[in-house]
Every structure is written in structure tokens, then in C-alpha cells.
């Protein structure tokens, strides 16, 4: 939940890490500038008070809470919403609900929507300002200025304007291009793990708990497949020259006589 945005940005900037430092930072600036322009244009095209995601979620909550009975309490801002055998207390002043969805999403849940409808309030007033269209547009009003040419840079009067590269030790081998996966991430591998003891998938012989085959017969196999599987495993090797089963091609007497001739 905390690294989704970082991982998305990491995937977008993976190829730019091979560039020099100045070029890499310029790529970062251009990508952020493109995102600002695209999202500001998309936000300005909305003709609703709320964003499209907030409108969809709020519509579902209003439709779901349309049939919930609401009871008033001694407090004017506290309402009791009954859902079957359960009841939820909705506080419209502090914008809370017992289901905790109202304060987490900052959008009225189905219980809060039923209480707002019963009290006669406007449901858009209980949606947080971060879901308003004007808020989203104002977020992308910032100006990202590009760097001027090198001749227009204002250098400090002290010190040398030449910045030397840091002294680093290059690691041996070819640098890895993809990012290193974390410990909680599943390791993707195209090679399927098969046990060499029972030939079962998803484990190896060190942790295998299958019964050991006796006389070439697999005790874990179904009854109808025992003789077939045992016969297949007990099939001896044949010589590719004469077809005998007592020896193989290197020890075949016919092949040895042929070689002597």
C-alpha cells in the first residue's frame, strides 16, 4: 500500500538510470512535466463537482443505502442506521461511522448516505475537498521550469566551477538492468520445480514425504496404474545394434567384431 507509487515511477524510469546524471535528471523533469500537463487537461475537462472515481463510488453507496431505515437519536447530528440485525451510528458533524469506511475514504458510506438523505442534507457537502474537481486542477497549476543553457548559469564567486565526478569503485561483472525484488515479492521463474524422488511438482527430494517405491512400483499411484507404471519403470535398456537386453551398444559383441573387421 505504501510502495505502489514508487514502484510505478521506478518502472517508468528504469531505462533512464543508464544515462549520465545530468541527462537522467532532465528525463525526470520532462516526465513530471508531461504528467502535469496531461492531468491538468484531464481535470479541466471534467464537468462535475467531484472526480469521476468519487462520483462512481458515491453513486454505489447512495444506491446501496437507499433502503436502510434510519432512526434519530437525542443528538441532532447523530443517526442510527439499521441494516438487518446490525445497527451503525453515523455522526454527520464529525463525519464518522461505525463501519470506519466514512473516515477512511472521506466519502459518505452507504450508512452515512442513508442518514444524509433522511436528514435532508446535501451529500456533496460531506465529501472531502480532495475529491473536488477544483482541488485536482489546482494541484497541477504549479510551473516546472526547465534549466537554461550553460552560458546563462549563475555560478558562485568562490570555488571552482568544475565539479568532479565522485570516486567510485565499479563492481565486477555486467550491471543488472532490472530492479532487485524485495523479500515479500514472489520470485518469478520460468523453470518448474520437480521432485527427483517422486516426480511431483512444487517441492524437491529434501522435503518429499511420499512413500518410497518398492520393486519399481509407486505406492502412491492409483490401483489401475500400478502395473503399467511399474512395468514402464522396470523396462531394461536394449542394445541399439542387436536388440539384446543383457548389454548395451558399447559392450555389444557384434559391434566389436565389426570394428575388428
UniProtKB/TrEMBL annotation:
Q: Which GO terms describe its molecular function?
A: zinc ion binding
| Keyword entries, A-Z | Metal-binding, Zinc, Zinc-finger
Q: Does the keyword Magnesium apply?
A: no
Instruction: Give all residue intervals belonging to the SWIM-type domain.
Output: 88-120
| UniProt keyword Zinc-finger, yes or no | yes
Record InterPro entries: Znf_PMZ, Znf_SWIM
Q: Per UniProt, what is one Pfam family of this protein?
A: SWIM
What name is this protein filed under?
SWIM-type domain-containing protein
Amino acid at each position: 500500500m505504501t510502495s505502489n507509487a514508487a514502484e510505478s515511477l521506478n518502472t517508468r524510469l528504469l531505462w533512464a538510470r543508464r544515462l549520465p546524471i545530468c541527462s537522467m535528471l532532465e528525463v525526470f523533469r520532462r516526465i513530471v512535466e508531461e504528467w502535469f500537463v496531461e492531468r491538468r487537461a484531464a481535470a479541466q475537462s471534467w464537468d462535475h463537482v467531484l472526480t469521476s472515481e468519487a462520483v462512481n463510488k458515491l453513486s454505489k453507496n447512495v444506491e446501496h443505502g437507499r433502503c436502510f431505515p434510519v432512526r434519530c437519536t437525542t443528538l441532532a447530528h447523530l443517526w442510527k442506521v439499521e441494516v438487518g440485525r446490525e445497527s451503525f451510528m453515523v455522526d454527520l458533524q464529525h463525519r464518522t461511522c461505525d463501519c470506519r469506511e466514512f473516515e477512511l475514504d472521506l466519502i459518505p458510506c452507504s450508512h452515512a448516505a442513508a442518514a444524509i438523505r433522511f436528514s435532508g442534507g446535501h451529500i456533496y457537502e460531506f465529501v472531502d475537498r480532495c475529491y473536488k474537481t477544483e482541488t485536482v486542477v489546482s494541484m497541477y497549476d504549479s510551473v516546472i521550469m526547465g534549466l537554461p543553457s550553460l552560458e546563462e548559469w549563475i555560478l558562485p564567486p568562490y570555488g571552482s566551477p568544475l565539479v568532479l565526478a565522485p570516486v567510485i569503485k565499479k563492481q565486477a561483472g555486467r550491471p543488472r538492468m532490472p530492479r532487485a525484488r524485495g523479500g515479500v515479492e514472489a520470485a518469478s521463474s520460468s523453470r518448474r520445480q520437480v521432485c527427483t524422488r517422486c516426480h511431483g511438482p512444487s517441492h524437491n527430494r529434501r522435503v518429499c514425504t511420499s512413500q518410497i517405491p518398492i520393486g519399481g512400483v509407486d505406492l502412491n499411484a492409483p490401483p489401475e496404474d500400478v502395473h503399467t507404471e511399474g512395468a514402464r519403470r522396470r523396462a531394461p535398456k536394449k542394445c541399439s545394434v542387436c536388440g539384446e537386453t543383457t548389454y548395451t551398444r558399447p559392450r555389444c559383441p557384434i559391434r566389436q567384431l565389426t570394428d575388428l573387421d
